[in-house]
Amino acid sequence: MTKGPDFHVTRRHVVVAGAATTVAATLPYGARAQAPAARAAAAAPAAAVSTKVGFTVNGVARELTADNRLTLLDALRESLQLTGSKKGCDHGQCGACTVMVNGRRINACLTLAVMHEGDEIETIEGIGTPDDLDPMQAAFIAHDGYQCGYCTPGQICSAKAVLAEIKAGIPSHVTADINAEITVSDAEIRERMSGNICRCGAYANILAAINEVAETEA
Length: 218
Prior knowledge:
Elements: H1 11-26, H2 29-43, E1 50-57, E2 60-67, H3 72-79, E3 98-101, E4 104-107, E5 120-122, H4 135-142, H5 152-167, H6 186-192, H7 203-217
Parallel strand pairs: 1-5
Antiparallel strand pairs: 1-2, 3-4, 3-5
């Protein structure tokens, strides 16, 4: 309260000041001393909680004790050392972390590891090997469907899922008639692959690779 030239002590000022002094004086010293510590304890972050989780990754049963906040992507990369799935945006916008869970593709950065107890997970490491390439991997190589290769694991996982979705009759935003048989087309592939970003711009080659596999499997 600023004291100006016309400031006058009133009865109200005296009562308020006296009450504040009385309250402060009646508090135990320990309570006054502990107040900052209590505030600091309340502001401290909660202790991490971990849970044991087991799932099958690329046909192999795996088990780990994971912080409940650990994403599936970080569990695969950091805990299980399966670094094929990439961390691009960490916001589910680029598709570099795409993996298959129970036969359906997901963004591994947007889901927690503890949510997948008992699930079947497939990463790029489980799709093929240098000596035994999956047809989609071979097509990506034949059509130069990559440049830097960073997004390629997610692109291949999504590409395989796209053909599986079309075969299962799952419509997309561009499907003209959801009651008719869905066929592979450039429009369907582009729409379904739109969640996988290639910063090098190899989209035309990726499209050609997927079409080749679709024709082979038809």
